[in-house]
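Structure (tokenized):
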């Protein structure tokens, strides 16, 4: 997908669903952390927190009590519409449509900044983060859902060298003046309980671009399910890395 196609995709998903995968039945083995729990642990009750690429706000709303004020931004109008509906009864949360490449906030305004599975600009984050503030990001690694992407012969970051994104993120943060940069990773096994759960995932994420629009997609999916069905469910993987950096 190019940038325009991504925007159209996320707008569509945002209006329909946000990032609400609560009804998807999936068992995970080997997950080493919960990202927003890690964000919450860094927060003081007096802190102002920015969440970049907040989607429908589902994740950041779960830690609303952790900080004085939470601000979520997303470039998708559809996502922000969903986030505002989801947060109607929560007083200390604000959602704004904004591009992560141009953070329109006062300098050194936020104590904590988070970004899960979203693009970010290290220089823009450094601009609006207080001295001593903390930035946390979790990103999808190149080999995530590898057996699915190999079955389809296409997919997000398929063929990209492992750790390319992590290396680039760390380089960008160093150049933006961050120090004490730590990185962590895991490669967990996931078992989707039914074909419907797997189809929902593929339709609402960019793992397989244009999933369902190519003639052979569902035939490939049926064979993939046959090849990867286990007593625990349909097997794939979730590979993630997390970076924690202090300005």
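Design, position by position:
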């Amino acid at each position: 997908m190019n940038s325009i196609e991504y925007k159209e995709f996320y707008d569509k998903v945002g209006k329909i669903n946000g990032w609400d995968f609560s009804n998807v039945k999936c068992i995970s083995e080997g997950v080493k952390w919960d990202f927003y729990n890690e964000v919450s642990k860094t927060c003081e009750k007096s802190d102002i927190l920015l969440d970049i690429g907040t989607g429908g706000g589902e994740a950041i709303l779960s830690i609303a009590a952790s900080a004085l004020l939470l601000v979520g931004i997303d470039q998708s109008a559809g996502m922000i519409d969903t986030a505002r509906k989801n947060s109607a009864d929560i007083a200390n949360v604000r959602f704004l449509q904004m591009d992560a490449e141009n953070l329109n906030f006062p300098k050194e305004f936020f104590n904590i900044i988070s970004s899960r599975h979203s693009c970010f600009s290290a220089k823009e984050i450094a601009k609006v983060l207080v001295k001593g503030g903390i930035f946390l990001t979790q990103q999808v690694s190149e080999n995530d859902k590898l057996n699915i992407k190999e079955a389809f012969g296409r997919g997000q970051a398929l063929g990209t060298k492992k750790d390319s994104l992590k290396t680039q993120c760390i380089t960008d943060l160093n150049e933006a003046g961050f120090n004490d940069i730590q990185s962590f990773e895991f490669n967990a096994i996931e078992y989707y309980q039914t074909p419907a759960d797997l189809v929902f995932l593929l339709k609402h994420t960019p793992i397989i671009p244009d999933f369902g629009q190519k003639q052979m997609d569902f035939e490939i999916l049926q064979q993939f399910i046959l090849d990867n069905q286990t007593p625990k469910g349909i097997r794939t993987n979730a590979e993630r890395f997390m970076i924690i950096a202090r300005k």
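Reviewer-requested clarification: Confidence is low (pLDDT under 50) at residues 1-19. The CA atoms of residues 142 and 162 lie 6 Å apart.
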